[in-house]
Every structure is written in C-alpha cells, then in structure tokens.
Amino acid sequence: MNRILCRRPVVQGLVFIVVAGTLAHLAYSRYGFNPTDEGYLLSASRRILDGQVPHRDYITLRPAGTHLLHAHILLWGGDRLIWWSRWVAWVQVAAIAWIWVWIVGRSSTALTGAGARFAGGVAAFVACAHVFPIMPWNSIDGLLFLSLGSALSLREGGAVAGAVLIGASALFRQNFVLGIPPLLLVLGTFRRPACWVAAGVPFGLYGVFLWVAGALPDATIQLFSHSGSADRVWTVVRESLAVLRGALAAVVALSVATFVGRWPVRGAIYLSLGAALWLSLRLLGLPFTQAGLLGGWFVCGLAIGVLPFTAGRSLEAARAAALSLVAAWAVSISEGWNLPSLACGGPVLVFFAAWLEAEARNRSPAPFAPVIVWTLLAAAAVVVMDFNRQTAVYMDRPVRELTFDLTGVLPGARGILTGRFTRDFLAELEELRADLTRRGRRYGLIPQTPQFWVTSPQPNPLSSDWPINAELNHPALRSRVVGEIDRLRGSVSFIV
C-alpha cells in the first residue's frame, strides 16, 4: 500500500481528498446552523428538481451552476441532508487544496515525496477552509473549476480542455469571468484563439439555454443587479496595507534564506521575526489565531513577495505564484464574502516552497528536511483552525453552547447542533407550518430562512427564497416579489 501511494500521485490525491475532507467533516459539520445563509443554494436546487427554469421562474442573482451541481444531494441526503451537503463541500475544499499542491509541486523540489505533499496539502486545506461557513456555495464550486482548469492547462495538450473548465467557473458566479483573461495570460495560452473560444463556450451555452427557455430578459436584470458593487473588484487596493505587510514579510524571509550564510544566524533572525509578528498582533489587540490577518490579504502578499525571487530563476515557479494570486483575486470579488481566503492555499504553498528551496540552496542549509517544516506547518494550521472553529461558528454561538439538536425540528437537519434561540425559532416555524397544513392553507415565509424551502412539503409560492435587500436590490426584482405577495393575498398565509 505504501508503495502504491508513493508511486501514484492520482491515488495520493484521491486518498488525501477523501480522508482530509471526511475528517474535517466529522470534526465540525455537526456544529452550527445559520438561518440566513443555510440552504440558499439548495433551495434553488429544489426548484430545479421541481422543473423550474432559473431566472424565469425564480430569482437568482448568480448563474444556476451550483443549483445543478448540488441537486443530487436532495435525492439521497434524506434526514441528514444538511450534514451530507457539508461533507460534499469539505471534499471540494480538500480537492482545491490538492490541486494547488500539484500546481506548486510541478516546479518545487520542496514538495517532493508523499509525506511533504500530504503535509503541504493539509496546510493548504486549512488555509482555504479556516472559518469559512462550510455548505454548498457558488464560490467553492467556481474556485474548484478554475483551479482544475488551471492545472489541466499546465499539462501537455490540455490547454483547450482547461480553458473550458476555467470558463465554466463563471457558471457558478459571474465574477469569475474577470479571472479568465489574466489566467490565460499567465498560462501562456492567451494568443491561442481556440482557448478564448473554449473559455467562452460554457457561459455561451448557458445564454442559449436562457434564450430558448424565455429567461434571458429576467437573467439580464438579475445577473447585472450587483453591477453597482463594482468596487468589490478593487478591494485588493483598499487592503493594500495588509498585502504590503505580507509582501514585506516574504521578501525579508527569502532574503535571509538567500543571503545570510550561516544557519545559526538565520535561525536567530527567524525567531526574531516570529516574535515581532506576535508582538505586532498583541499591539493591535488581535489574537495570534486571528484568521483575517493570517488567512487573507496578508497571505496573498506572501505570494507577491515571492515573485522577485522566482521570476528570473524558474518560469514555472513564477507562473504558479501568479496563478494563485489571480485565483485569490477572482474569488474575492464577492458581495457577501469579499475576501480571498478560500483561495489562500495556493499562496501559502507558493511562499513556503520558495522559502524551503532558498534554504536548500544556501551554502549552510537548514538542518532539517522540508517534510519536517511542512508537518510542523500543517500541525500549527490545524491547531489554529480548530481554535477558530470552536470559538467562531458562523452566525451562531461558540461550540460549547451548541447543545440543541435539530433532529425532528427541521427536516433534513438530523444531527445538527445549534443554540437554544435558533432551535426555538425553527421549532416554532415548523409548528406554524404544520398548523397551516392541517387547516388546508398554503403558506409563505418572509424571514430569510431558505433552508426551510429545501425540504418543505409545499413549494415556495414566491420567486425568492431569500427576500433580503442584497438579493432584491434592483427595483424590478422588488416589484416582482411585492407583486406576487399582493396577488397571493387571501390565498396564502405568510409567516413573518
């Protein structure tokens, strides 16, 4: 078995993806339920299975790729639907991490060997996941396709197929369209018309489908309704201070590894840098495990700082760094999660691989193998993530206070633990739904609780499962939903 793992990278990848995703799932997926976001995309998957056409029959401000990709979970998830849907998301994040292990490892001797790849994969996995609320989400889907397409494009003869996958990332969130040109530029395929055509095929086919289904006018309004938030594209400029800090840290670390000849001196400098980082965090009033600093724009800065040291030595290493930065920028263009954190696995691998290689080239190399560094990094990353996931559950209480099981309270939520107030709210909601059903009344729901519609016996009578300002930000969309409420007056009881 060990011989197979060492010789077959594909097998290594499959083992890592399944094991890492499943272990994280078993450790964290049962904790927390946020009524605001949970089920937003699965409720649209329910509509797809009911035969509804995206944009025409229901409002979605993003393309329907995620609705289609995750619809299968509703067919087999049963009473543990939420639990299983989170497992799928964990596996996707693990796949993203491993893809970047392969991309960075193509040009780095620091990721040679199964041990180094597995440990580096864990570090990348944690950098991507950290405190992100794990559930089916369009950013995860888009990043997975973008990463897979980039990796395929790097293989001989895979440029056109890779461009198709890169283009398909826009089927999950339209902002990924902005990442296509820089990706083709970095990959060196931007002069090939076939790659441009291939990248445009997925979204082009989606447009043809919408036109045939009579959904194109509605889709145009919905897909461009967030155009007033174009400033999200330039968030990296507003966060330039954090990026510059990361770049400076990388330049200093790599300069020490490259130009300081004696290991004991370098070791002392590294300890001093670590102490300075800890002190700066304390002066800022931030814990050392603060995810926003260690898992966001700062990490992107690390990859930027690597570029001057790799551009003249290894084109492939510089390409891997640039690809990781484009992916991080593309995923950060978001209305709700305006951070590059989901894509931080790549920059983390880029920086530490460059640092380890610089140490190995030094005439007085560090007295430890790269696998030791990757292992220590992975262990520290797991500790940090565990601390954050225990204390900062998304839109819910800390784990120690999540003692109320949703089994029997919300269909599809067996085994999910939440706080008392959320459990009581969902229990009351289910009682109201059951009472209306007994009286033969149709019901609607105004609070933002989209998971309710994923398993509701009755379909949502409104075209919006998430009636909040951010989703109904266009006058035409607000008029549509308000008009539906007016027309349903008397025939539908709305729970508010």
Q: Which consecutive residue ranges, at least 5 long each, have pLDDT under 50? A: 291-295
Radius of gyration of CA atoms, rounded to a whole number? 24 Å
Biggest sheet details: 2 strands, antiparallel
**SSE-based structural type:** mainly alpha
The beta-strand count equals: 4
Shape: globular
Helix content: 55-70%
Strand content: under 5%
The number of helical elements comes to 23
Q: Average pLDDT, to the nearest integer?
A: 90
Distance between the termini: 58 Å
| Strand ordering within the main sheet | 1-2
What are the secondary-structure elements, in order, as H or E?
HHHHHHHHHHHHHHHHHHHHEEHEHHE
Could you explain the architecture of this structure?
This protein is an all-alpha fold and 496 residues long. Among the domains are: 230-365, no CATH class; 404-495, no CATH class. It has helices spanning 2-7, 9-28, 40-49, 65-69, 71-76, 81-105, 114-129, 138-154, 159-168, 180-187, 193-212, 216-223, 235-238, 240-259, 263-283, 291-294, 297-310, 315-332, 345-361, 370-391, 420-438, 451-455, 475-487, and strands at residues 404-405, 417-418, 442-445, 492-495. Strands 1-2 form a two-stranded antiparallel sheet. Helix 7 (114-129) packs antiparallel against helix 19, helix 9 runs parallel beside helix 11 (193-212) and helix 18 packs antiparallel against helix 19 (345-361). The longest helix has 25 residues, at 81-105.
